[in-house]
Amino acid sequence: MKIDQDIILASYTTFKIGGPARFFCVVKDQFDALQAFEFAREKHLKTFVLGGGSNILVSDEGFDGLVIRVVNKGIEVLSESDDNVLLKVASGEVWDEVVKFAVTNNWWGIENLSHIPGSTGAIAVQNVGAYGQEAGNVLEAVTVFNKDTHQILSLSSDSCGFGYRKSIFNSSEKGKYIIFDITFNLAKNSHANLEYRDLKTRFGGKNPSLADVRQAVIEIRNKKFPFPTEAIKGNAGSFFKNPVLTADEYLDLQTKITVEFGQFSSDELGKKKFSDNGQIKIPAAFLIEICGLKNLQSGGAAINKNQPLVIINADGKATAKDVLDLAEKVRQSVREKTGVELKFEPELIGF
Ligand SMILES: Cc1cc2nc3c(=O)[nH]c(=O)nc-3n(C[C@H](O)[C@H](O)[C@H](O)COP(=O)(O)OP(=O)(O)OC[C@H]3O[C@@H](n4cnc5c(N)ncnc54)[C@H](O)[C@@H]3O)c2cc1C
Nearest Cα to 24, choosing from 1, 44, 42? Predict the structure, then answer.
């Protein structure tokens, strides 16, 4: 396995931002992984596991360690019954191609997660979610490589600690594993999950096919999320997570918003709040909008007007500092005007 030096990371991220990795390698199996971690151990290097680079912001100075990019491929049906199929997918497979494959085969469960960039392995890391579905709901097991013991383990869905944008892989066990593959439990006879308002409105009581749902999700997303291609401005999807509040915190927020912006905005907040697992969630986009931050810019970074949760590399030359300065301004203004502390969604690398 080859280990390169001083590889500029910008082109490995959807933000198109970031300085060099001191060392960089590509792994396709556990033997490569073993070599990579041994190399890092001998040289006392930090390591970072990279997928499609769609949920990270790399600093302008880069990463002073070893970046390990996972590129293994393969999709396999492990077992099939009249009702279900267990589908094992290698981490390096492009996630949206996997969704397309499942929809084409008439397997239900991941269609609402259409058109999310990145690799399959990373789906488990932040328990990717969209349009009323989360990866953890259909995930059966994850095969991981432990960087310290060099063992390959199979973790059940229950041991992954899934929550909103959360798993053991981005919290308690962060940096410990390379995820090599994920097994999904998909349904053969099911129906559309139209819990999310935009989808419900679109189908108005009808029972759409899998292909209809995927098409609708793609169309709705395209209006809000600039799917990173060469022609589209760099971004990492939502930069801010939706705040999760207790009932008391929600009442405080209502009071603050009424004082700061008037009753109308407070009523709007009531319509926009949504409940998830018994918790109250507030769309961060709404808070950013009422705080008047939609047109904010910092250097080459700007708020995306169609979906203010997204920060874009507006002129193609934005630095990581531009993005962070902008994100901090948003966070500070929202904190001052609403009392809510926004959290960043992409992982910050090399800061
Ligand atoms: C336009 C756009 C829209 C988006 N929409 C959504 C959305 O609706 N919902 C949502 O949840 N996310 C969304 N995202 C965020 C992002 O696409 C997902 O989080 C995606 O799963 C990240 O995949 P990646 O391969 O690019 O991961 P990377 O950005 O490369 O890495 C992200 C994290 O996963 C870790 N990681 C990656 N691969 C592995 C592996 N094999 N083993 C161990 N750790 C690994 C990395 O170390 C890092 O901590 C969006 C992003 C963009 C740009």
Answer: 1
Q: Residue 346 in 3-state DSSP?
A: coil
Q: Name the pLDDT band for 266 (thresholds 50, 70, 90).
A: confident
**How much distance in Å is there from the Cα of 282 to the middle of ligand 1?**
22
Q: For the domain with range 75-224, which CATH number is right: 3.40.50.970, 3.30.465.10, 3.90.1150.10, 3.40.50.10810?
A: 3.30.465.10
C-beta of residue 259 within 8 angstroms of C-beta of residue 269: no
Instruction: State the CATH architecture for 3-70.
Output: 2-Layer Sandwich (3.30)
Beta-strand relationship, 63-70 and 46-50: parallel
Å from CA of 116 to ligand 1 middle = 9
The residue among 71 and 278 whose pLDDT is bigger is 71
Two tokens, residue 92? 């390096």
- Beta strand spans in 28-62 (E): 46-50, 56-58
Span 186-208, average pLDDT: 91
Show me where the domains of the chain are located. Answer: 3-70, 75-224, 234-349
Pocket of ligand 1 (CB under 6 A): 14, 48-56, 70, 91, 116-119, 121-123, 125-126, 128-130, 169, 177-179, 225-228, 235-237, 347
* Structure-block tokens of residue 233: 């401005």
Catalytic positions are: 165, 238, 345
Ligand 1 atom with the smallest distance to the CA of 130 is 8
Counting every residue written for the chain, the total comes to 351
The torsion of the CA quartet 91, 96, 101, 102, rounded to 10 degrees, works out to 90
Ligand 1 atom having least distance to the Cα of 124: 21
Show the tokens assigned to 147.
């960087």
Mean pLDDT of the chain: 95
pLDDT for the residue numbered 86: 98
Q: Which of 221, 244, 219, 233 is nearest to 311 (CA)?
A: 233
Q: Determine how β-strand 56-58 pairs with β-strand 347-349.
A: parallel
Report how far ligand 1's centroid is from the alpha carbon of 60 (Å): 20
What's the pLDDT at 276? 67
- Residue 323 tokens, joined: 């993005």
